[in-house]
Amino acid sequence: MQIPYELALGWRYTRAGRTTRRNGFISFISGVSMLGIALGVAALIIVLSVMNGFQKDVRDRMLSVVSHIEIFAPLGAALPDPALTLAEAKKNPNVIGAAPFVSAQALLARGEDMKGALVRGIDPALEGAVTDLAATNEKTLNLLVPGEFRVVLGGELARALGVRVGDAVTLIAPAGQVTPAGVVPRLKQMTVAGTFDSGHYEYDSALVLLHHEDAQRIFRLEGPTGVRLKLKDLHQAREVAQELARSLSGQLLIRDWTQQNRTWFAAVQLEKRMMFIILTLIVAVAAFNLVSTLVMTVTDKRADIAILRTLGASPKSIMGIFVVQGAMVGVIGTLVGLLLGLGIAFNIDVIVPAIERALNASFLPKDIYLISKMPSEPQSSDIVPIAVISLVLAFVATLYPSWRASRVNPAEALRYE
């Protein structure tokens, strides 16, 4: 099969250029452009992979406490028919687990210390089907027996109150009892059955778990206030929530996990988008260095262009030769950047500890950060756009110098040759 001469000449010009000082300088600029594209692509892949890793780690810790979807009654009231709601929710093929719960706010006191708390009444037998926290703390949650009024506290909350397993704490419900002396808050002494640490400070410092029947008695509810669901695919939570809104009976509110932490996820997406834009500028600068490289190449190859034109080459063919030359630099730089970026991203758990040992330093101290290891999760949804943008920028950078080459007048170019 005959290779088009435009492709052959473009590839030859990409490899050549070290015989003279001028050609050597052109080759050096071309190499710098190629290296810049490779480093820019690699930096984009590494940074976005690390951001994906941090996001996944924090999300997993969050979802160990928060269920994928919550169905609850308005104004914190009890569900009108919990059994019906559970049965209807389980009919959805995407739902793999369901459990009732009671959600309320209260104060938790021990001596003179008092902290605001998010009280969650659970069914220990079913909680493992909707959260990973229950699966990892099964023995502790099984101590929550109805009528015993025991609680399991977040580790940070227990440390803030200075309580240990077996200590007594007082739960103060917001709605008080009306007496001749006025409104008296409802107090209930509870026994600490255990603690948990999810790795997410917001929940470890405020969450109180108890049996849902005990919670119903304390807050004077006739039943659970909602149902928690676990899905096959957590990324389909919004779609499943919309399906449940159409299929469930009664006036119920539905909230998925992305809505519960909307501000955090919005901030992460914005930060990731801005990092993508900023680091893409590195690739853009390197790609547009090709403009100066090709302009210098066109000037150096004016005689060659004139000879090709006299032999019958069309302006379109001349333009194609230099487009191929610039595109080759972009393709090689992009491929090298992909290999370098993916190599580091997939082995960052080995590379970072090696650098820490060499420098005798810790980038993520355990006593400061919740995540002490550098996570990484390369995703094709990030890598493919990076490669496409790099190639497009390199191609666009070749258009103007290639067009200038196609406009070279053979007679003028050969006048002084």
From TrEMBL:
<comment type="similarity">
    <text>Belongs to the ABC-4 integral membrane protein family. LolC/E subfamily.</text>
</comment>
<dbReference type="Pfam" id="PF12704">
    <property type="entry name" value="MacB_PCD"/>
</dbReference>
<keyword id="KW-0472">Membrane</keyword>
<feature type="transmembrane region" description="Helical">
    <location>
        <begin position="383"/>
        <end position="403"/>
    </location>
</feature>
<dbReference type="InterPro" id="IPR051447">
    <property type="entry name" value="Lipoprotein-release_system"/>
</dbReference>
<dbReference type="InterPro" id="IPR011925">
    <property type="entry name" value="LolCE_TM"/>
</dbReference>
<dbReference type="InterPro" id="IPR003838">
    <property type="entry name" value="ABC3_permease_C"/>
</dbReference>
<keyword id="KW-1003">Cell membrane</keyword>
<dbReference type="Pfam" id="PF02687">
    <property type="entry name" value="FtsX"/>
</dbReference>
<keyword id="KW-0812">Transmembrane</keyword>
<feature type="domain" description="ABC3 transporter permease C-terminal">
    <location>
        <begin position="276"/>
        <end position="410"/>
    </location>
</feature>
<feature type="transmembrane region" description="Helical">
    <location>
        <begin position="318"/>
        <end position="348"/>
    </location>
</feature>
<feature type="transmembrane region" description="Helical">
    <location>
        <begin position="276"/>
        <end position="298"/>
    </location>
</feature>
<feature type="transmembrane region" description="Helical">
    <location>
        <begin position="25"/>
        <end position="51"/>
    </location>
</feature>
<feature type="domain" description="MacB-like periplasmic core">
    <location>
        <begin position="30"/>
        <end position="245"/>
    </location>
</feature>
<protein>
    <submittedName>
        <fullName>Lipoprotein-releasing ABC transporter permease subunit</fullName>
    </submittedName>
</protein>
<keyword id="KW-1133">Transmembrane helix</keyword>
<keyword id="KW-0449">Lipoprotein</keyword>
<keyword id="KW-0813">Transport</keyword>
<dbReference type="InterPro" id="IPR025857">
    <property type="entry name" value="MacB_PCD"/>
</dbReference>
